[in-house]
Structures are given as C-alpha cells and as structure tokens.
Design goal:
single chain, alpha+beta, four-stranded antiparallel sheet
Length: 63
C-alpha cells in the first residue's frame, strides 16, 4: 500500500498529526502520520467498515 491519505478534517498541513489510510481492493491499511515508517495495521475492507461505523457512533470512546 503506497497511496496514503489523510482526512480533510485533520487540518491539511504537513505537521497535522492524524491517522492515514491506504486502500487496496481487499484491504485498508492504517498508520500514524507522525511515524509513517512505523507500525501499521491492515484490515479486510468489511472489518474496516464495521470499525469506522463503531467509531462514528462512539463505541470506542474513552470514559
């Protein structure tokens, strides 16, 4: 995965810290923009969709 994208809500500047995503036909890669050569996770597309839906509804918010 080489085409990494940042959310437009991250401020758009080169110094904005954000999660970056890269998509292939079967998977979505996730990495930290502060450490682009660091660890990343890869999720099947459907699992990523479920995770994103959970995040949007607050299922993973800290107390």
């Amino acid at each position: 995965m080489t085409n990494w994208r940042k959310s437009s809500h991250s401020g758009g500047s080169a110094t904005s810290d954000c999660v970056e995503l890269a998509r292939s036909p079967r998977a979505v890669g996730v990495r930290d923009s502060k450490d682009p050569s660091g660890p990343r996770i890869t999720l099947q597309v459907e699992r990523f969709r479920r995770l994103a839906a959970d995040i949007k509804r607050g299922a993973h918010d800290l107390p």
